[in-house]
């Protein structure tokens, strides 16, 4: 589950300001390609070591190596998400052992940027591929004029729902607003139906996205002034969102089970949940987990994410990965060529979306007839890309992440646990979260504005 960053061990001090003064700045030694998972096609070419965990990486790497004579990828799966990040952090501290290119989730970039562990790719032609991505996708990998990674996939959010549950309990159309969502949840529960959705504590990235959708700006941060940060977690938008979901949970209109567990997937299969608020990669994950192959096959559909104000819709994102060049790369020009070109060719992107491995952010795919008109089998032939996911991806305006995403997610998770159990209110949780994060930021050497 590459999107569940909260599983990553807390690297609090390593991701704080105290660590940035020891950043490598390029003087370290990258992990030299010695043993590769893949075949090197051109032995005399410059070898670039890559850490990545996409399920179809073997095919992607072969596509790249077969198409390039000047540079070759030596790929290793150093772990999926959290394990890889921990190894990378160890390499940063040791000033040796990092790969030349590394796959990172977008919300983790700033934590490594502040340590000077990543290379600004703008001098290496990053902007040559800028037009292939939406402004929001590009914002997620940029700091001012600097570009610290190349986007590959994303997670525009929408609402998956069970058509059989909706029909049984008289929900004639997917809710367009969160007020309609709450009304439908109450109607289904009053009739003896299942949970309308789930607000698991182990997906704080979802809660954050929903806060942003309401108008919250949890963090304002610019690497140009890396000692300064604005934290705004006790604003009305954040309070409203936490109160809304906490209210649904305490009224038992939704579940509070951790997602991505065996029990949760069993519940999805058995119709325990009428909806699943998730990202564009969810169909691939659910299919891989065995959902949609039994009695529930053909009973799933997807609709746009409900809005707080339907007249002013806001698109938000959950997840998405990038390729970044590490400061320890021995040949940064070659590494940048890999970061820009890996998983960017037509064959790899096509394999990625057809196997539901990724939701690509490359506009060459998003505008292609095959992708746009694809009838998604999981959604019983619905043209979900054209109708739901592509508009959401292109409308996404980007987000601002803090240098301590992992610590923040852990604290938000703890507050959601208390909200769901009725031990605190949404308003109090937001206030407490603000106090915790301000104290933590100051302890790490930041000036909180």
From TrEMBL:
Keywords: Signal
Entry-linked InterPro entries: Bact_solute-bd_prot1 (IPR050490), SBP (IPR006059)
Cleavable signal peptide: 1-19
PANTHER family recorded: ARABINOSE-BINDING PROTEIN-RELATED, BLR3389 PROTEIN
The protein, known as: Sugar ABC transporter substrate-binding protein
């Amino acid at each position: 589950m590459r999107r569940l960053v909260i599983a990553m061990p807390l690297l609090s001090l390593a991701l704080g300001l105290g660590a940035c003064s020891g950043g490598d700045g390029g003087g370290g030694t990258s992990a030299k390609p010695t043993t590769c998972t893949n075949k090197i096609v051109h032995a005399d070419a410059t070898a670039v070591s890559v850490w990545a965990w996409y399920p179809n990486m073997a095919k992607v790497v072969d596509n790249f190596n077969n198409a390039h004579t000047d540079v070759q990828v030596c790929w290793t799966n150093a772990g999926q998400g959290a394990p890889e990040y921990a190894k990378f952090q160890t390499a940063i501290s040791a000033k040796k052992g990092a790969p030349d290119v590394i796959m990172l989730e977008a919300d983790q970039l700033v934590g490594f940027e502040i340590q000077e562990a990543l290379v600004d790719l703008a001098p290496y032609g990053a902007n040559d591929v800028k037009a292939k991505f939406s402004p929001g996708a590009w914002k997620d990998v940029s700091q001012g004029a600097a570009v610290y990674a190349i986007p590959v996939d994303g997670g525009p959010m929408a609402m998956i729902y069970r058509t059989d549950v909706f029909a049984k309990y008289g929900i004639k159309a997917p809710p367009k607003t969160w007020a309609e969502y709450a009304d439908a949840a109450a109607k289904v529960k009053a009739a003896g139906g299942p949970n309308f959705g789930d607000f698991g504590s182990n997906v704080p990235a979802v809660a954050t996205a929903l806060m942003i959708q309401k108008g919250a700006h949890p963090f304002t941060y610019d690497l140009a002034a890396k000692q300064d940060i604005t934290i705004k977690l006790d604003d009305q938008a954040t309070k409203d969102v936490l109160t809304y979901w906490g209210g649904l949970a305490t009224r038992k209109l939704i579940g509070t089970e951790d997602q991505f567990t065996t029990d949760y997937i069993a519940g999805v299969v058995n119709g325990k949940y009428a909806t699943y608020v998730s990202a564009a990669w969810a169909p691939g994950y659910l299919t891989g987990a065995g959902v949609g192959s039994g009695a529930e096959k053909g009973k799933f559909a997807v609709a746009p994410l409900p809005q707080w104000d339907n007249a002013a819709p806001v698109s938000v994102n959950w997840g998405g990965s990038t390729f970044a060049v590490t400061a320890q790369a021995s040949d940064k020009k070659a590494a940048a060529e890999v970061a820009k070109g890996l998983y960017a060719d037509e064959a790899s992107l096509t394999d990625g979306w057809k196997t539901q491995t990724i939701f690509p952010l490359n506009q060459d795919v998003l505008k292609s007839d095959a992708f746009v008109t694809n009838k998604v089998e999981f959604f019983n032939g619905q043209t979900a890309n054209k109708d739901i996911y592509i508009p959401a991806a292109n409308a996404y305006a980007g987000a601002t992440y803090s240098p301590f995403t992992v610590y923040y997610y852990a604290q938000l998770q703890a507050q959601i646990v208390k909200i769901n159990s009725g031990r605190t209110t949404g308003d109090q949780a937001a206030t407490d979260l603000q106090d915790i994060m301000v104290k933590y930021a100051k302890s790490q050497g930041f000036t909180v504005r």
